[in-house]
Every structure is written in C-alpha cells, then in structure tokens.
Amino acid sequence: MNKTILTTAFLLGFTAVALGAFGAHALSEVLESKALESFKTAVYYQMIHSVVLLIISSFNRFDFKEQKRLFYLFLGGIFLFSGSIYVYYLFPLLGIDLNFVVYLTPIGGILFLIGWILAAIYTFKKS
C-alpha cells in the first residue's frame, strides 16, 4: 500500500504543479478573476492533500487499514473537490457543458474533513 500511496501522491503533486502553471499562464487570459481564483484553490487543495498522502505513507502511527482508509478519503476528496472545479472551468473552454459537477465539490470537501478527523482520531488513540 505504501508504494501505491507514494506513487499516487507524487503523480498528484506533479499534476498540481502542471495545472497550477497552466492556470497561471494559459488560463489567466481566458478565465475571469473569480474563476481563476477557484481554479487556484483546486490546485492548492490538490497539492496540500498530495503532501498529506506522502505523510500518511511515511508515518508509522497508521496501520494498513488506517492508511488505506485515509488514502481513499483524501484521494476521493482530491478527485471530487479539485477535479470537479477543473472540469467546471476547463470543459466549457472545449465547448462541453458539465456544470452539474459543481455539486460534487462539497462532497469532496466532506471527504477531506472526514480524512482529517479520522487521522486525528487514529493518532489520538495511539498516544
């Protein structure tokens, strides 16, 4: 599982940097400032939670089940929160209307919150 978490975290970090650069250079001419700010938030949350995945995979306090559960919560959060924002702002530029994805964003945020609270509970229980 550690190898999977680490590889996923590195790939998510890579894509966060790539999307951040894309947003700063290519999208600044196309998106309104509020939309660009939302896009930056998606990149930021993706990067932060990629680092969290690195910590989870390296932190000896979490057993296999706990790591797996946290991995899926944070991965789901990244895909639903950040991914829905990317789709919401990028797909219209391609002429594709997928505005319904905006309803997935808060679900991703909830997955992040559950992941954070579970990590705290797991850590507290072992102290």
Q: Which regions contain 5 or more consecutive residues with pLDDT less than 50?
A: none
- Average of pLDDT: 93
Largest sheet: none
Q: Tell me the distance between the termini.
A: 24 Å
> What is the count of DSSP helices, taking H or I runs of 4+ residues?
4
In terms of DSSP E residues, the strand content is under 5%
Structural class: mainly alpha
How would you name the oligomeric state of the polypeptide chains in this document?
single chain
Q: Element order, helices and strands?
A: HHHH
- Number of self-contained structural domains: 1
How many DSSP-defined strands? 0
Q: Rg, please?
A: 16 Å
Describe the structure.
The chain has 127 residues and is mainly alpha-helical. It has one domain (2-125). 77% of the residues lie in helices and 0% in strands. It is built from 4 helices and no strands. Helix 1 packs antiparallel against helix 2 (33-58). It is elongated. The mean pLDDT is 93.
Layout of helices and strands, plus pairs?
Blueprint: H1 2-25, H2 33-58, H3 64-90, H4 105-125
Please sum up the structure shown.
The chain is 77% helix and 0% strand. It has 127 residues and is mainly α.
Notable characteristics:
0% strand, 127 residues, 4 helices, elongated, mainly alpha
